[in-house]
Amino acid sequence: MTTENENLAQTSHDTxxxxxxxxxxxxxxxxxxxxxxxxxxxxxxxxxxxxxIDSNQLATDQVATFTRGYLRSYARLVGVDEAVVLAxxxxxxxxxxxxxxxxxxxxxxxTEKHNSRIMLITWGVFIIIIGISSLWWWQNQRDNxxxxxxxxxxxxxxxxxxxxxxNIPALDxxxxxxxTVAPEEVDPSVVEEPFPDATPDVELVEEPAAVEAxxxxxxxxxxxxxxxxxxxxxxxxxxxxxxxKDAQGNTLISGIRKAGQxxxxxxxxxxxxxLGAPEGVAMTFxxxxxxxxxxxxxxxxxxxxxx
Length: 307
Description:
Layout: H1 2-15, H2 21-32, H3 36-43, H4 47-54, H5 64-78, H6 82-192, H7 200-221, E1 229-236, E2 240-245, E3 251-257, E4 262-268, E5 271-275, E6 281-285, E7 288-290, E8 301-305
Antiparallel strand pairs: 1-4, 1-6, 2-3, 2-5, 5-8, 6-7
Helix pairs in contact: 2-5, 3-4, 5-6, 6-7
């Protein structure tokens, strides 16, 4: 019977809720009539430490040796057995350890989530930088290719410019020959024609005047354009590569013109015009000025006349 009573007492003792260490010390302090401030002053501790012990809020980030030292000093002051206090602390340690593990897991989860967001933002910025760099490189390659093609075309078409410049004096020579031959063809008729004796001097004076009128008329009518021909004039203020084709696809000019040069072209409209440096060219079409201000300086201008 005695053994059964002891087992029952032991079972009731095991199942009874354990008193937390802070509650144990607080009850003893209140029995002695000590305030938290008095205990803190006598133990030379901060008041917040005593308040945390009384409310069983032991600092988890504090070294365990310090915590046990505070509790032993508190127990000696209020007259509680140190072994009982440390045993109560050990009993509460398992629950605190589990709670700390849960808090650590929660913090770890939040940290991993935060780090994943930072990585996503970092990768997004990296992809944007790569995209901008690729676009910049592609634009530079396209501009370089266009400049290279213009230079190659200029190098191929330079002989055509030389041939045209050589042909221009030939046209002037033909015109001068026509003007020179015209009076010689008239002179025989003047010599062979019989003149009356009464008025030889007057007729000799009038015949050269008629010859001069015919020569002037031939000079004035020689530059007249056909009805389907149009005139383009250009004045170059800077070096410029140029190409002009008429309605039949014939190339009227292709090559480089130097600053200070003038150019006149005639042909059947419409004309396809390409200017390497439109900002350095002043142009008229059919005696009307052509507005080139719409084209960007430094860029190749392509257009058709009439606009």
